[in-house]
């Protein structure tokens, strides 16, 4: 699938289902992540980061560039683009934003809005070591293959919750990031 086909598929399909969220009755702290999709050698790739171990929230986990909304952010799209610039050096004017997915509530008190964006041109990766330990790409085709997306049920306080996970090479992608990837794949393949 190339950028053109991805854009058509993304725009043609109505969102079939929201991400399964933690059942919280409160409004979480607003946050946004960018789902940056870049074409490398005629193959779409997702850009992912690994969080440093010293961070308070989700240390060491694989994630998309993103973070908490700031009062100066115009909207959550601005939040996702600002954070991507701060974390990996991806400039906002190098991203074609296609849209957003519904917010995902987490047990850690965040309400995360995923922003889908195509990276227009290759860029120089500039990692902020305070926020990112590593940055890498994974072919979107790997995730689209349904056999590479897994889920288990986890019990918390006597209730059962679905947890997505996706092993890739020596990486283990799970939780909200895996749920967002699963939703993206279901959306563009109309599963």
TrEMBL record:
Keywords: Hydrolase, Magnesium, Manganese, Metal-binding
Keyword Hydrolase: yes
PROSITE patterns: NUDIX
InterPro entries assigned: CoAse (IPR045121), NUDIX_hydrolase-like_dom_sf (IPR015797), NUDIX_hydrolase_dom (IPR000086)
Boundaries of every Nudix hydrolase domain copy: 28-161
Needed cofactors: Mn(2+); Mg(2+)
Domain of life assignment: Bacteria
NCBIfam families reported in the protein's UniProt record: PRK10707.1
Protein name from the UniProt record: Coenzyme A pyrophosphatase
Species whose genome carries this gene: Shewanella saliphila
Gene label: yeaB
């Amino acid at each position: 699938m190339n950028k053109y086909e991805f854009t058509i598929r993304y725009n043609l399909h109505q969102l079939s289902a929201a991400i399964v969220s933690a059942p919280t009755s409160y409004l979480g702290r607003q946050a946004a992540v960018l789902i940056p999709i870049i074409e490398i050698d005629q193959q779409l790739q997702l850009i992912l980061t690994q969080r440093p171990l010293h961070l308070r929230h989700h240390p060491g986990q694989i994630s998309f560039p993103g973070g908490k909304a700031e009062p100066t952010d115009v909207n959550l799209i601005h939040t996702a683009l600002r954070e991507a610039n701060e974390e990996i050096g991806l400039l906002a004017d190098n991203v074609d934003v296609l849209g957003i997915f519904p917010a995902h509530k987490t047990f850690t008190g965040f309400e995360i809005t995923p922003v889908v964006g195509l990276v227009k041109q290759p860029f120089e990766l500039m990692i902020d070591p305070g926020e990112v330990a590593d940055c890498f790409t994974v072919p979107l085709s790997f995730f689209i293959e349904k056999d590479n997306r897994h889920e288990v049920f986890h019990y918390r306080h006597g209730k059962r919750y679905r947890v997505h996970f996706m092993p890739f090479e020596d990486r283990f992608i799970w939780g909200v990031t895996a749920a967002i990837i699963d939703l993206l794949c279901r959306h563009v393949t109309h599963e």
